[in-house]
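User: Hey, quick favor. My workstation is busy. Could you predict this chain's structure for me?
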Amino acid sequence: DDMGCCESKGAEAAYMPASSGGGPGSANPLMMPPGSSDRIGGPSLGEMGNHNSNNNNHNSASHNNHYSSAAAAAGGGGHHNQKEEPMTLAEIESRIESIEKTQTATFGGLKVRYAYLSQRGYYPDDPHKANQDAFSISHDFCGQETDAFFAVYDGHGRDGDRCAQFARDNLPDMVEKFVSRSKSREAKFHNGGTRNAAAEKQIELTKDQIQSASNKAHVECNRSMHRAHELDDSLSGTTSISVYIHGRRNRITICNVGDSRAIIGQRMSDKDQKTAAKSIGGPNITSHLKAMPLSRDQTPYRRDERQRVRATGARILSLDQIEGLEPIGPEDDDEDFDGSANELELGEELDEGGDPPRVWSPHGEYPGTAFTRSLGDAIAEELGVFAEPEMLTRQVNEEDAIIVLASDGVFEFLTNQSVIDICAKFKDPLEACRAVVAESYELWLQYELRTDDITMICIFVDGVTDTNNLRGSFISASSRMLEGAGGGSSSELNFSSFANLSTPLEEAPGDDREDGFLTTEGLRPVRNHISVGKSKAIQQMKIKMAATDSDMEISALDDFDLSKLYTKKTEEEKARIAEAIRASVMFQNITDEQREMIFGVMEPITVKKGTWVIKQGTVGDRFYIVDTGRFEVRIIPDGEDDKDGRGGNVVHVYEGSHESHVHPSFGELALMYSAPRAASIIAQTDGHLWALHRYAFRQVLAQQSGRQELNLTLGRMEIFKNLSSEDIKKLTAAMDEVTFGRGESIVEQQNFGSSLYVVMTG
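Assistant: No problem, here it is.
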């Protein structure tokens, strides 16, 4: 996933392609049988009878159960000699591991419902590659029925699945261990130095104590992973994002290591909703929730993280820069760069094709991590890629509605706000998980040759009760701050107050003020371009088939009659179309007038079961929205033939439903340029689609009000200096918008040209 696969020089091991699997003799992760412990591990996908992993455990009368799983293929992915057959629908569903039904719980003053879902990625070169994501959910955390622990782990490297499972099985225990130690010390303080187990359960730690214990737990888990015999973490590891709920105080503590993410959706006031509506150019906001970050991605996009790892001697470069395909500037590979305002703020210029900045050794082309913190990654640790988490502790308030923990596969193509908007459409967090994961998976298929593993935990906050009535049931360690500082409000204290405490500094309760929200500066950009690999694949498919004459395309566009496609839509139909195109980058900057035009020219298409909507390798000219029905995605691997005429392996299923408010889309790239389809879409059931023709989309964009920037550019050109302003406007209106994927040829040397190009973006 996040690794370079270059050869290691001078290192004990190199990152191998993730398809290498566990190798001969590699041990399967240990799975605890139900009833043998309060931690229950889910089966591997190879052992699963259906796609709901822990169905028999969620109805347990005991709340001690720790739900955990990592959807790994049996044997850690060693399936490379198996005959590759098209996957059945059951096998497709086996890629998805989810809770059977949404769970309801009360943690102190917080009443919540939660669900989880993990979908194994699609890798054409390794269809049986293990899911390297994992997750864990613990009730009665640290012996408190008011507390809980939720976490998502995203493994990487050859043993990434085992690293994620190791963190899943050990990190919650280690957090419990260090939190319990801190509570024990507090209980002794309140009981004259005598340990009292009952008193320990009454202790509620301060923010600093919780964060100190959590930090120690992550560091200890990292050390234990280095020592583990069942895995090799020299060039493998895992990220970790967790939320620790302290229900007696209505608080949460977020711990983040790596680039998985935690976000929260807050209810907006009427004033905030109006401001949000203005910011997107119209009144059609998709939810009344505003997404706020609870974590910051630890990647080289962040200047502070770049400077930290560079201090160890690490280099920060993209794969293209390592391979000499992109230039290296002083801001890219100079550990002594002054960090002035001229320093490159890494962003889309390095990640348009999925090529992010990475961490490299000064001595060779390894390890190539796209993150700056992780559990494991022993070799990268020497370059500052360590396991210390960044933490945030805050109150959960009445305006807080949805909490999401997810691996980076969700956020590759979706913004924080898009994820919250999708969740807000549903009353059931399990349906929200399904919709977000499906949307993420579909965007991966559109922009990449593969998909990432995608895992998400969604928590709906249904009620927040004032915990003042619980004050008598627990003792807050922050009371020591008042005693040590001679009274006063704890919110007014600072670390200098601890000098008056009789206990050593490391045992002092510390600061108890909640943290504010995090900045989004240095956030990894959301990708809106196809990858280099997919661009090359499309180019190769173009070469294989007869090239379409561009003059014919221009002529066809000129003859295209937009009015013939126009059909009147009901408000309900418009709402479904609007929801389907909301997350697409192609429609993000359109005006309200253009949106209405798109509604009008969307073609209604009724489809019968078995119909081939699109066929791999044929040139596509339409973008589709699934209104109702199920449609399977089939791909013929590169270099293979469709011998049985079935269209290759089933890699995904699109399902549209009015009841579930789910309307996936496909074929988005056809709106940008004439290119062969990368997959076939076949109707599993009767269904209904909406289709948008590329020419219709272009004409809608061409009617953009003004096109002032293009107008000014043409007016400044020497060749047009004798044209009147009216003529310039006519010329501007006559120009077409054309989008090229990375790696595509626009003009070729020595060929005759017939077009003038103005570069708008890129």
